[in-house]
């Protein structure tokens, strides 16, 4: 029973990245295609997966419903939102809030840029751990063993020529991130998009989440991006203080 649950959970996380075929799921789980198909059918029956016309499987409506219920129960959104608004006003750019959950960093809130040209992103999107500011800001704060386990489990996909695709390069970047207190995504996930992010810290030293400011490179240079660091750090410190008070 435990093995079946683990396989179903791994299937959901695997399909959550992008639609997958039966053979892809079978390869991922290390099982025969008929076993993978039984798992996919069961998840489809619970509306956790949808079957596309091409035969591939994607996340279903029930996942979205559960995700929304989970988001509604997360207090950090209410705590961080006023500071996100302030950060958006100070920079004029898109502000994201993300958290680490089940080994994945997920966007749970967003305030759009004040400019006509905006970046594409959505609440509920899983941020790649190795090439997004929100993820690196959290990853840099994890205990060494937990950080190492996540790096080992991360598929270091090359999204652009700027993506960090080796564990050593990622670890070096995380050390720099921790030392300076913020992460930088210099077009690592998406060409033309720059981002700076910082963790919202609990009083016990854990990262409750992270905030980021993202902007198109045609509008924001590296130098201009650096100007966002001060209001970003003010926002995460303010949110951390309120989070601590909320927990009292």
Rg of Cα set: 19 Å
Q: Which CATH class of the largest domain applies here?
A: Alpha Beta
Classify the secondary structure makeup into a structural class. alpha+beta
What spatial order of strands do you see in the largest sheet?
A: 5-4-3-8-7-6
Question: Which features would summarize this protein structure in a list?
Answer:
2 domains, globular, Arc Repressor Mutant, subunit A, 19% strand, Beta-Lactamase, alpha+beta, 248 residues, two-stranded antiparallel sheet
Give a description of the structure.
With 248 residues, the protein is α+β, with helices and mostly antiparallel strands. It folds into two domains: 2-67, Arc Repressor Mutant, subunit A (Orthogonal Bundle), CATH 1.10.10.10; 74-247, 2-Layer Sandwich (Beta-Lactamase). The chain has ten helices and eight strands. It has helices at 2-17, 22-29, 33-45, 61-72, 75-91, 133-139, 144-153, 167-180, 222-226, 229-247; strands at residues 49-51, 57-59, 94-101, 104-111, 126-127, 183-186, 193-201, 207-216. Strands 5-4-3-8-7-6 form a six-stranded antiparallel beta sheet, sandwiched between helices. Helix 2 (22-29) packs across helix 3 (33-45). The protein starts with a helix and ends with a helix.
């Amino acid at each position: 029973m435990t093995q079946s649950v683990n396989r179903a959970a791994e299937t959901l996380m695997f399909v959550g990245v992008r639609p997958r075929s039966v053979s892809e799921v079978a390869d991922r789980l290390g099982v025969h295609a008929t076993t993978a198909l039984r798992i996919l059918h069961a998840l489809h029956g619970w509306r956790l997966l949808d079957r596309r016309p091409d035969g591939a499987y994607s996340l279903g409506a029930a996942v979205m419903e559960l995700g929304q219920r989970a988001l509604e129960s997360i207090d950090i959104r209410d705590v961080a939102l006023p500071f996100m608004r302030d950060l958006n006003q100070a920079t004029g750019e898109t502000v994201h809030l993300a958290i680490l959950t089940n080994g994945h960093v997920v966007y749970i809130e967003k305030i759009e840029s004040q400019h006509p040209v905006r970046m594409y992103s959505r609440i509920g999107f899983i941020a790649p751990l190795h090439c997004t500011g929100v993820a690196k800001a959290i990853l840099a704060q994890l205990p060494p063993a937990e950080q190492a386990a996540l790096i080992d489990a991360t598929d270091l996909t090359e999204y652009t020529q700027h993506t960090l695709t080796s564990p050593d390069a990622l670890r070096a970047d995380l050390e720099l991130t921790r030392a300076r207190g913020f992460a930088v995504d210099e077009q690592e996930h998406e060409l033309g998009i720059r981002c700076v992010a910082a963790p919202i810290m609990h009083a016990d030293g854990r990262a409750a989440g992270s905030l980021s400011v993202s902007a198109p490179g045609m509008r924001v240079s590296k130098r201009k991006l650096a100007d966002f660091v001060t209001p970003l750090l003010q926002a995460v410190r303010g949110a951390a203080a309120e989070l601590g008070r909320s927990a009292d």
